[in-house]
Specification:
alpha+beta, 4-stranded antiparallel sheet, 45% helix, 11% strand
Length: 229
């Protein structure tokens, strides 16, 4: 015990008795510290590798159990075939499936785009197994750390008028203009309202014309220009 305790005392005594050695040790330590600081890589805006994408899939009207069995498990089974995926965390709620993906630590910014392409292919394979009514999976690969420099909120002063649709269109125009600004990486909209057109039927006139509500619905579907190719 005395030998182990005496070693630090001997080192301290050596520095106290030899001041030149103490000064030399301090100078070497300071120079090494300054050299290490100056050699550290520094960036004003460091690039962070995105390793945490997310997949959101909507199944309107479905219970959490159906979402888990018919959507979440299908996606999880397909994604497990990608070896670069480190962890998959799933959440199934009523009408919504959320799949959080964590890529392996060795994935770099040069290789993650290729992996994202493989994930999209697997999501397409999983979507082919979905039942009718499930919307296409939304692959969010922009969930990396970003600096939000501008947050804009649009509001209509005259609340007596129903202007949600107009605000939505103005918001989309503003988003397009902001995307054209140099240095803008990402523009997102939150809380945008969905527009709906209500068609009221005159039952007496429809009956006189020999038409039904199904005939009108079929005519509207045929006139819709948004039918997928």
């Amino acid at each position: 015990m005395q030998d182990s305790a005496s070693k630090p005392n001997r080192l301290a005594t050596l520095f106290l008795e030899n001041r030149h050695l103490l000064v030399l040790f301090i100078m070497v330590t300071v120079v090494a510290g300054i050299s290490a600081i100056q050699s550290l890589p520094r960036l004003e805006d460091p690039v962070i590798t995105n390793r945490n994408p997310q997949v959101i899939t909507l199944f309107p009207g479905a219970t959490a159990e159906r979402v888990e069995a018919l959507v979440t498990e299908k996606i999880e089974q397909e994604l497990k075939e990608i070896p670069e995926i480190k962890n998959i965390d799933t959440t199934s709620q009523a009408a919504v499936s959320v799949v959080a993906i964590e890529l392996a630590d060795e994935v770099t910014i040069e290789s993650n785009e290729q992996i994202f392409s493989e994930i999209r292919d697997k999501l397409a394979d999983a979507a082919a197994q979905f039942p009718e009514g499930v919307l296409p999976p939304d692959f969010d690969d922009k969930r990396n750390a970003v600096a939000y420099t501008l947050i804009v909120s649009l509001a209509w002063e005259d609340r007596r008028e129903n202007t949600l649709g107009l605000i939505n269109r103005l918001g989309e125009e503003l988003a397009d203009q902001l995307r054209a600004v140099s240095g803008t990486e990402l523009v997102r909209m939150f809380g945008e309202p969905e527009e709906e057109i209500a068609v009221m039927l005159d039952e007496a006139e429809f009956t006189a014309l020999g038409l039904t509500a199904g005939d009108l619905a079929a005519a509207l579907r045929q006139a819709d220009a948004k039918i997928p190719s």
